[in-house]
Hints:
This protein has 6 helices and 2 strands; from the N terminus they run αβααβααα. The protein has 188 residues and is mainly alpha-helical.
Amino acid sequence: MEISSFAEVSFYLWLLSEIAILIKTKVQRKSVTSENKDKGSFWAITIGIFTCILVNQICNSMKIGYVNSTISDLGSILIIIGVVIRLWAVVTLGRHFSLVVSVESEQKIIQNGPYRAVRHPSYTGGLLTFIGIGLAFNTWVGSVIMLAFFIVVFGYRMRIEEKALKASFPEEYPRYIQKTSKLIPFVW
């Protein structure tokens, strides 16, 4: 099944945004010293994303869980919304954003921008993007696979991040948790 031009553009927009985030992070964090508390989650996410995209392509080519062009376009819109939310989160954190779990000694709990409502808005954007990729690739099965991947791998990542932040901010972070949702405003 052919992927629409809109789906291709939105997918490449996501890919370019991730490359930009990678470059920005490498440049801004070159002189930052922090303890890496990632526990392999970066590589689990990276390998998982590429595996899920491959599975989505296979589902598309075999017409497994086919969705029509309207649903595919909705998926493309979800990708774009997800990219915007993720970029907003990255920009809000500035030089404190990292692709691996780490906490700097002079770091503070950011509570403005998207962090006012959710503790992991970058992952909120990722969730929308991953669901959108499956739909944009014309397969609801691909979306379910991306959602399952997200729940497992990003759930693991969020637990690691929250543990590191609680250890670094034993008084402030629990108060922040009480005021915010983890991923989806007013839901979870």
